[in-house]
Design brief:
A 5-stranded antiparallel beta sheet has the order 6-5-4-3-7. Helix 6 packs antiparallel against helix 7. The chain has 853 residues and is an alpha+beta fold. It contains 27 helices and 10 strands. Helix content is 66%, strand content 7%.
C-alpha cells in the first residue's frame, strides 16, 4: 500500500469505527435481552394510547400478537429432536459401554480412526441439534422486549380508559388485548424454558461423545501404538484360526447393510441440503460451459504447455470437469456421512480423475492411476471385512507386496525411467520411487517381526500418498483450467490489451494455484500419518503464549491473524479490481453506463479494505471502542492539518459517482493534455501524449476548468484554413474541398464535411474546410487532407499565393556609392526573396499582411 493511501484510510477507519462501536453496543444489548436483563433494553417509556386511536390500535395489536404467537410456536424439527434425543442418548450410552471391550481387543490404528470419525459424526449431529434449538430460543427472546412494552402500554391504557369513563365495550376490548399480551409473554417464556431443558439434555450427550473421543485419542497416543512398539508376535508364531481372538472386535467392523440404511436415512433427513446441492450443480455446469464457450470464441495461443493444458482441459473435458467438481461439492456439503457413502464418493472422484490425468501422462505411467484406485479399494475393505489378527497381518503383507510389484512394473529399469522426458511433477514422482520401495520393504519386514504399528504407517504412506496425489493433481488441473478460462474471457472481450500483462497474470495464477494445492496436499498427508494433530497442538500452544512489551500484551496468533487478514483483504481488492473495474468485466452483462462498473469496483474495494483493517485490528486484540476517543482528536487534526487531503478525498468520491471523467478519456486541464489512466480516491493519473504520467490531485480536476474531449462521444471537428489566388474559381474550390474531405477514410459521414468561403484577403481568397473525425485520428486526418488539398490544387492549376510586399526606399544618402555593382543588386534581390519565403509560412492566409512603405 502506498504511503499516501494511509491518509484517506484514516478517514475510512473513522467512519467505520463509529459503526462498529454502535454494533458492539447493540450486540451487548441483545445479549442482555437474551440472558434475561430485559429492563436494560427498554429505550422508551410506555405510554397510554389516546382514546382517539384506541380502536385502531386494538385491531393492529391483535393482528400483531396473533402473528407473534404463530412465530414463537415450537417448530416441527425441534419436536422431532425432542422425540428422538432420549433414544439417541441410550444409543450413545450403549455404544460407549462397548468402548472398554474395543480397547481390550487391541485394535489397529485404522479401526481407532474409524471409530473416532464415527463419534465425531455423533457429536456433529448433536451440535446441529443444539444450534437449531438455541437459534429458536434466541429468536423467541427477541420478541420479549416488545411484548413487555405492549403489556405495560395496554395496562396504562386500561387504567386511563377507566379514569375517562370509557364505554364498557371499549374496556372489555382493551382488557382482552392486555390479557393476550400476557398470554403471549407467558408462551414465549414457557417455550424458552422448554428449549433450555432440551439444550441441557443435548449438551449432556455432547459431553458423552467428547469423553469417548478423548478416551480414543488417549488410546491412540498411548505407548502401545508407538511406531517401534512390538504389538504382536512374530508372524511365524501367530495363529491363523478362523475363530476370533476377541469376539467383541467383530462388532466394530462396518456393516454394509447398516451403512446402506444409514445413508438412506441420512439423505432422507437432508432434503434442504439436497436442493442446495442441485442448485450448486446447476451453477457449476453453466459456469464450465460458459468458460468452454469463451475458449472457443476468444481464441488465444498459449505461451506455455501448462496454459495450453488448462485450455484443453476445459474445452475437451468439460463434462469430466463438471462431474469431478460435482462429486467434490457432494463430499464437501454432505459431511459426517456414513462411511460407505463417503468411500463410494471418494471412489467415484478417483475414477473421474482417470480421464483427466491419463492424456497428459507419459505412456509409461498411463495405467498407474488404475492401481491407485486398487489400493484405495484394498484399504477400504479393511473397514468392512472382519479379520483375525493373523489374517489381518497376512492381508497387509499382501498389500505391501502388491505395492512393490506395481512399482517394479512401472519403474523398471529405474535408470531408463529416470532419464525420461517428463514434466517437473513427473520427475519428482520418479525421484520418490526409491523411497516408496524402502517404505514397502520396511512394512513387510516390520509386519513379519510383529512391529505392526510401523507396518501400518509405512504402508499408509506408500498407498495413501498416491491416492491424495491423484485427487489433488486432478483438482489442480481443473482449477488451472477455470482460472485461465476466466482470464481468457476477461481479455477476450477487450479490443486492445498488453499481451505481456495477460501472460504475467496467467503465469502468476498458475503459480499461486500450485502453491495452494501443495499446502493443502501437505496438510492431508500429515493428517494421514497422524502427525497433523500433534503439530497443530504444538503450534497452537506456541502462538497462544502471551507476550508483553510495556503495557501492550499480544500473542503471535493475534499478529499472524492481523497479517493474514490484511493479506486476504488486499487479495480480495485486487480480485475485485480485476473482475469488475471496467466495462469489460463481469458486469458487462448488465450493460451499465460507462463508468458505473469502475464506481462499483471502487466502493466494494474500499468497503472491503475498511472492514478488513477493522477485522485485522480485532484479530490483534485492539479494542475498537477506543476509536471513539480518537475520533474527536483526529477530527480536530483533520480540520486543521489535513484539509487538502480531505478535499482531495471528497473530490475523488465526486469524480467516481458524478463521472465527469472516465478511464480512457482524453482530458485537458491546466494546459495538460492526455489520457486518464487511473481515478483514485486522493489523486488521478493522466498519461500525456509525450509519454509522461502526471499525478493530478482530484481537487484540481473538480475546481479548475476541465475539458473532456471524449466524455459523451469521441468525435472532434477539425478545421483546415486555405487560401487561393484571385484568379481561381471559388465555386470550383468549394467542390474540390468537399470532395477531398468526403473521400478521406477518417472523415465521418454524419455530420457531413462542409467547405465554406471565409473572406476576401489582401492577396488571397480565404476558404475554411470543416469535417468531423474520431478524436484519436484527428491529427492524422488533418495532415492527410491538407496534403490531398495541395496535390489536388496543383493538379487543377489552382495557385496558393504568398503575401505581397511593396518596398519603398526614400532619401538615399549622398555618400552612397553610386557605382553599385550587378552582384550587389543580385544579392539584395536574393535577400528580399529569402525574407519573403521565411515570412510566407508564418503569415499564410493572414487577413491583413504587413506592408512596409
Amino acid at each position: 500500500m502506498q504511503p499516501n493511501r494511509f491518509k484517506y484510510l484514516i478517514c475510512i477507519l473513522l467512519l467505520f469505527s463509529s459503526y462498529v462501536t454502535k454494533a458492539q453496543t447493540d450486540l451487548l444489548s441483545e445479549v442482555e435481552m437474551v440472558t434475561g436483563n430485559l429492563d436494560s433494553t427498554q429505550t422508551s417509556k410506555p405510554k397510554a394510547i389516546s382514546s382517539v386511536n384506541i380502536v385502531q390500535e386494538i385491531e393492529n395489536t391483535n393482528n400483531e400478537l396473533k402473528l407473534t404467537q404463530k412465530k414463537v410456536q415450537i417448530p416441527e424439527n425441534i419436536k422431532k429432536i425432542d422425540s428422538v434425543h432420549a433414544v439417541h442418548y441410550q444409543f450413545l450410552l450403549q455404544e460407549s459401554n462397548t468402548l472398554e471391550n474395543f480397547i481390550k481387543a487391541s485394535p489397529n490404528l485404522q479401526k481407532i480412526d474409524n471409530l473416532i470419525l464415527k463419534w465425531y459424526g455423533y457429536k456433529s449431529t448433536l451440535s446441529s441439534w443444539l444450534s437449531t434449538v438455541n437459534n429458536q430460543e434466541t429468536r423467541n427472546s427477541r420478541y420479549i422486549n416488545n411484548i413487555i412494552n405492549k403489556e405495560k402500554t395496554w395496562e396504562l391504557s386500561y387504567k386511563k380508559a377507566i379514569e375517562n369513563d370509557s364505554p364498557k365495550e371499549i374496556l372489555e376490548a382493551i382488557k382482552k388485548v392486555w390479557d393476550k399480551t400476557k398470554q403471549t409473554k407467558e408462551l414465549i417464556i414457557d417455550n424458552n424454558n422448554y428449549y433450555l431443558i432440551l439444550e441441557t439434555e443435548i449438551n449432556d450427550q455432547i459431553n458423552v461423545t467428547e469423553q469417548v473421543m478423548e478416551d480414543l485419542e488417549t488410546l491412540k497416543n498411548s505407548h502401545v501404538y508407538d511406531i517401534f512398539y512390538p504389538r504382536h508376535e512374530a508372524l511365524w508364531h501367530s495363529t491363523f484360526t478362523l475363530k476370533s481372538e476377541s469376539p467383541e472386535d467383530k462388532d466394530n467392523v462396518e456393516s454394509i447393510k447398516n451403512n446402506v440404511s444409514s445413508s438412506y436415512e441420512y439423505l432422507k433427513n437432508r432434503k434442504g441440503t439436497i436442493l442446495l446441492y442441485i442448485i450448486f450443480l446447476s451453477v457449476i455446469t453453466l459456469f464450465i460451459l460458459r468458460l468452454k464457450k469463451g475458449f472457443l470464441k476468444f481464441k488465444y495461443k498459449e505461451r506455455t504447455k501448462r496454459l495450453a493444458r488448462a485450455r484443453t482441459t476445459i474445452i475437451h473435458q468439460s463434462k469430466i470437469c463438471i462431474l469431478f467438481l460435482s462429486l467434490l461439492v457432494l463430499k464437501s456439503m454432505f459431511t459426517n456421512t456414513p462411511k460407505l457413502f463417503s468411500d463410494i464418493t471418494t471412489l467415484l472422484i478417483l475414477a473421474t480423475a482417470i480421464p483427466l490425468m491419463r492424456p497428459y501422462m507419459h505412456k509409461q505411467f498411463k495405467d498407474i492411476v488404475f492401481f491407485v484406485i486398487l489400493f484405495f479399494v484394498l484399504n477400504s475393505l479393511k473397514s468392512y471385512v472382519w479379520f483375525t489378527s493373523g489374517l489381518y497381518r497376512i492381508y497387509i503383507l499382501f498389500e505391501a507386496i502388491v505395492v512393490i510389484i506395481v512399482l517394479y512394473k512401472f519403474t523398471s529399469p529405474y535408470k531408463r525411467i529416470k532419464n525420461l522426458e517428463v514434466d517437473g511433477f513427473g520427475k519428482l514422482l520418479i525421484r520418490l520411487t526409491p523411497i516408496i520401495y524402502i517404505l514397502s520393504v520396511i512394512s513387510i519386514i516390520s509386519n513379519i517381526l510383529g512391529y505392526t504399528n510401523l507396518t501400518d504407517i509405512t504402508l499408509k504412506i506408500s498407498t495413501q500418498s498416491g491416492i491424495i496425489t491423484t485427487f489433488f493433481y486432478s483438482l489442480l488441473m481443473i482449477f488451472n483450467g477455470i482460472a485461465i478460462g476466466v482470464i481468457n474471457r476477461h481479455y477476450g472481450v477487450k479490443s486492445t490489451y498488453v499481451e505481456m500483462d495477460r501472460f504475467h497474470i496467467e503465469k502468476q495464477t498458475i503459480k499461486i494455484s500450485r502453491i495452494v494445492v501443495t499446502i493443502i496436499w501437505t496438510l492431508y498427508f500429515l493428517s494421514i500419518i497422524d502427525v497433523l494433530s500433534p503439530i497443530q497442538e504444538t503450534i497452537s500452544y506456541s502462538l497462544s503464549e502471551p507476550y508483553q512489551i510495556g503495557s501492550l500484551t499480544f500473542t503471535l496468533e493475534g499478529v499472524l491473524g492481523f497479517i493474514f487478514t490484511l493479506i486476504l483483504t488486499y487479495s480480495l481488492t485486487k480480485l475485485i479490481s480485476f473482475l469488475i473495474n471496467d466495462g469489460d468485466g463481469v458486469l458487462r452483462l448488465l450493460k451499465l453506463p460507462k463508468g458505473i462498473p469502475a464506481a462499483v469496483s471502487l466502493v466494494i474495494r474500499y468497503f472491503i479494505l475498511g472492514f478488513g483493517v477493522i477485522l485485522a485490528l480485532g484479530a490483534l486484540g485492539v479494542d475498537l471502542s477506543k476509536f471513539n476517543l480518537m475520533a474527536g482528536a483526529l477530527g480536530l487534526g483533520i480540520g486543521f492539518g489535513l484539509q487538502t487531503v480531505i478535499s482531495n478525498f471528497v473530490s475523488g468520491l465526486i469524480l467516481v459517482f458524478e463521472r465527469p471523467i472516465l478511464l480512457g478519456d482524453t482530458v485537458e486541464v491546466n494546459n495538460l493534455l492526455g489520457t486518464v489512466n487511473r481515478i483514485g480516491v486522493r489523486s488521478s493519473s493522466i498519461n500525456t501524449f509525450d509519454g509522461a504520467e502526471v499525478v493530478v490531485p482530484n481537487n484540481n480536476l473538480i475546481s479548475n476548468d476541465l475539458i473532456n474531449w471524449t466524455l459523451s462521444n469521441n468525435t472532434k471537428r477539425v478545421e483546415v484554413l486555405i487560401g487561393t489566388s484571385y484568379n481561381s474559381d471559388p465555386n470550383r474550390v468549394l467542390e474540390i474541398l468537399t470532395e477531398i474531405a468526403t473521400g478521406n477514410k477518417y472523415t465521418l459521414n454524419d455530420p457531413p464535411p462542409r467547405a465554406l468561403f471565409n473572406d476576401f484577403g489582401d492577396s488571397a481568397l480565404n476558404f475554411r474546410l470543416l469535417f468531423w473525425v474520431h478524436y484519436e485520428v484527428g491529427l492524422q486526418a488533418k495532415s492527410d487532407i491538407s496534403i490531398s488539398i495541395y496535390n489536388r490544387f496543383k493538379a487543377e492549376g489552382i495557385e496558393i499565393p504568398f503575401p505581397q510586399r511593396d518596398l519603398n526606399v526614400r532619401n538615399l544618402p549622398d555618400n552612397l556609392n553610386k557605382s553599385t555593382t550587378l552582384e550587389d543588386d543580385i544579392s539584395t534581390e536574393s535577400t528580399q526573396k529569402e525574407n519573403q519565403i521565411e515570412y510566407l509560412p508564418t503569415h499564410k492566409n493572414s487577413e491583413e499582411p504587413d506592408k512596409m512603405k
